[in-house]
Amino acid sequence: MPPDRTVSIRRATPGDAESYARCREQSMAAAYAHFMPQEFFDRRLERFEELVADYARDIADVDFRAHWMATDEAGRVLGICTIAAGPAQWERDLGLPEPPVQRELAQLYLTPDAQGSGLAQDLLRTALPPEQEAYLWCMWKNPRAEAFYLRQGFVHDGVEVSCGPTWLDQRMFRMWRPRRPRA
User: Fold this and answer.
1) For 62-93, b where at least 16 C-beta lie within 10 A, e where not — what string?
2) CB atoms < 10 A from the CB of 99, how many?
3) Cα torsion for 108, 88, 129, 127, to the nearest 10°?
4) pTM of the complete model
5) Where are the beta strands (DSSP E) in 4-163?
6) Environment class of 122 (CB within 10 Å of its CB; exposed 0-12, middle 13-18, buried 19+)
7) pLDDT per residue over 69-114, tens digit each?
8) Is 150 exposed, middle or buried (0-12, 13-18, 19+ CB in 10 A)?
């Protein structure tokens, strides 16, 4: 991302659902290409309209999740972030140990051209200020994300689980960030 690009961070609205979903799918494909086959991403794109409808409903439900997005001066979405109440139903269904905190960083994705620009930290800081505690799930084969979260004060809590057949049984682990005093 060019250093002179103007970026704004704001809450997403239901009308942003298509660009939000497009950013997520493109960013996921770039982040996970080294361990997920192209067919995985192709299957997701086959149901893109369904994903957009799901995001529109999800973004509208402000009591459950907060969706944030970073856009450039042309309105192109460069990054997305979702904060949710945890634990999620799938965590309960699997009988996983309760997370140490009740706020989840459910997703944080940047387009490839925005990576390394500092935008991820800005987006995270806006959506989840540093003094707020939270937990997240990170794929084992995603060391770049793991290193980023460690720099942001998250630590491993020892819980690991399979993502299930939809995600080709990839493994992920949980991290959490304790409450820190306001600086």
Assistant:
1) eeebbbbbbbbeeebbbbbbbbbebbeeebee
2) 22
3) 50
4) 0.91
5) 7-11, 65-72, 77-85, 103-110, 134-139, 155-162
6) middle
7) 999 999 999 999 999 999 999 999 999 999 999 999 999 999 999 9
8) middle
pLDDT(54) > 50: yes
CA gap 52, 103 in Å, rounded: 24
Q: Kindly tell me if the per-residue pLDDT of 14 is higher than 90.
A: yes
- Angle (deg, nearest 10), helices 48-60 and 38-46: 70
CB 107 within 8 A of CB 82: yes
pLDDT at 144 over 60: yes
Distance CA 70, CA 21 (A): 13
- Dihedral of CA atoms 92, 96, 99, 100 in degrees, nearest 10, equals 130
